[in-house]
Amino acid sequence: MSTTFQLDTSTSRANPTPQPMKRLTVPKIRAHKTDGQSGEPLVMLTAYTARQAQLLDAHCDLLLVGDSLGQVIYGLPSTIPVTLDMMANHAAAVVRGSYHAVVVVDMPFGSYEASKEQAFENAAFLLKQSGAAAVKLEGGAQMAETVAFLNQRGIPVMGHVGLTPQAVNVLGGYMARGRSDSEADKIVGDAKSLDEAGAFAIVIEGVVEPIAIAATRAVSCPTIGIGASAQCDGQVLVTEDMLGMFDRVPRFVKQYENIAEVIGKTVAQYAEEVRSRAFPGEPQTYQPKS
Ligand code: KIV
To answer: Quick check: 139 and 106 in contact, CB under 8 A?
Structure first.
């Protein structure tokens, strides 16, 4: 399926994405960390729509089409109900809206855990349908064989360890991980297994800082923290969280703006102007030609 369309700007409100420039690549992201040293931290944000991707792209090294879209876009209670089709459609939109960042798409719950063959089939579907460059999947040592299998067959994989939201029913909630010695050892071991299996980067989510730092030091590929540490090789946030779209602000989020307030105020003004017939005004109405 082609995800590229020619936009007629006289009929479509979608902004055309600038002419493709040379996009960053997965090997470039991987090479960001060499001999255990990485330069300036990698910048990753979630994106789910074409216009959002256009606005974020120039500032980011990676755009993640996260399965967090289940909660953020669809109002679902968790990421568990998210489907492959949802991921493929949003990832295609993000690819259409971007030209610089590497686009990574999350494999949703149930699409990769059963076997490495199942993972290949569904990861290939996501990349074919969307044009994204890589997939992300959750889990540590138990996913290493799958990561190697995909990687050897042309599908770059980003790992995800620590707090893995698709396992919420096993974990019992979204609490930070790595507080006990056994959990801490497991997180570092998971990161190492994924690294050895060929993951090009690893998200470390919701992990107490010393363990996030230990995991970062233990692996050769870049780590990308969320609720982890500034010592990770990069950072990611859910864009709507950092823009202030939601009332609940998790501890690890820095709210850079309060977009919900801006929208509320703007829409209240629109509603007031409609009700008082101040809108539409003369500039927004068509008059007969004289
Ligand atoms: O789904 C998502 O947005 C994620 C990030 C929070 C890392 O996995």
So the answer is: no
